[in-house]
Amino acid sequence: MKIVLMGDMDTALGFKLAGVHETYAFDESSLETDRAKNKLKELIERGDVGIILITERLAERVGIPEVTFPIILQIPDKFGSIFGEEQLKEIVRKAIGVEIKR
User: Fold this and answer.
1) Around Cβ 67, how many Cβ atoms within 10 Å?
2) What residue numbers bound the domain in which 8 lies?
3) More confident residue, 92 or 33
4) Rg of the chain in Å (alpha carbons)
């Protein structure tokens, strides 16, 4: 199963260097948003994609459909999380049952 990233150019480059199987970069234009929506739909329909990482800002623009597979994870981009640290801690606590403390 492949891990795929969708996000801005800098995030895509970083994940490509880290060894993610496929990366797709999109800017903030409306044409690129439509392109990202189509790419997300395509990735969901493919049988070889297991995890889709998508930056929070891109996910806000394209919308994330309710699917059980592949797993779609929203991640912060180079500007940080739009959800804030407390909400991220709560997501982690719900997902794995562990509270993160600094």
Assistant:
1) 11
2) 2-96
3) 33
4) 14
